[in-house]
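note to self — DONT lose this again. spent like an hour looking for the file last time. sequence + predicted structure for the chain T wanted, 382 res
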Amino acid sequence: MAFSLYIHIPYCVAKCPYCDFNSHAATSWPEDRYTAAIIAEIRHRGTQTPFAGCPVKTIFFGGGTPSLFQPASIARILESVAATCGIADDTEITLEANPGTVAERALAGFRAAGVNRISFGAQSFNPAILKYLGRIHTAEETRSAARAARQVGFARLNLDLIFAVPGQTLADVRRDLMEAVALEPDHVSAYNLTFEPGTAFFADLQRGRIRPLDEDLQAAMYALVRDELPQQGYPMYEISNFAPRGHEARHNLSYWRGESYLGIGAGAHSFAGEGAGGRRWWNEKLPARYLTLVEGRGEAEAGSEVIDGRTAMGEFVFLNLRLRSGLDSARFRSRFGCDFDEVFGSVAARLTAGGVLLREGGWIRLSERGLEVADSVFAEFL
């Protein structure tokens, strides 16, 4: 069965204070060595159960800042994937990029290497908010990068935005949405700023140096996003993602549908469904240690867990509920061999009565109120 492939490139020019991803600020990075390690791990993992003999259906270069690597390195990695697993003509291949790290020549190189979808971390078009978020790019660099991406042949273009930033207003959020839409991406991701443990923002929050926006204002901003983007031609298809039909992020859809995926690179996670349960494993996070492990044994697994059937069911439910279409009870039955209501009927009934879940035919999805308290709803299934 086809699977999705995630490739992690952990290096950044600067670490953003809100970022809790496995990213490492550096003035230089071992590009050739890291590329060779990625290729070695692909050859090792791609020829082992459960991925051996299975084609890749989506590829996603995340980070960090993958656009710091040269197009030739990305091309080498994709060549190794093609040789090991095979890449179909319609495979979605995404690369995340910081608008401040790419010029038209580099974008042309990525496109020639085989990347067919580019994702820019725009975050905002307000200079003050960009500075607050620790971004190294300007709004004009985002505009230039988006125009250049179109010019070199990228038909698929995503823009990431962040809202609910301390000091931000509803008018600021609306301006960011309109600025993004004006660049005519085929996909927009809009995330509510969160303060994750281990980040600089979380430390400042604990010390009282940051005061989050009022919860009602944050809810109003999310409502504005959910209202405005569909009006501009970007229907909501997932809690934070908006795109016309047929332009959804296929790679992320594989996560939300609970499908198997292979993660390659420092700190990357993988999941393989097995029967009613599955197995999850993750790589060494520190890039230097990751390199040493892969060079010694071809992989860098640092830990794993077996997922029992009940846990797998709960995860499958909450991941599918992230989608605006919701959970198809027929897919649940096909995946686990039992009816949704046999396992979660009482929970779903209570949440439906509480107005946060809707049931229509065989589908279960979040209501508008449910979207605003989604994390609390998800916790009920875990």
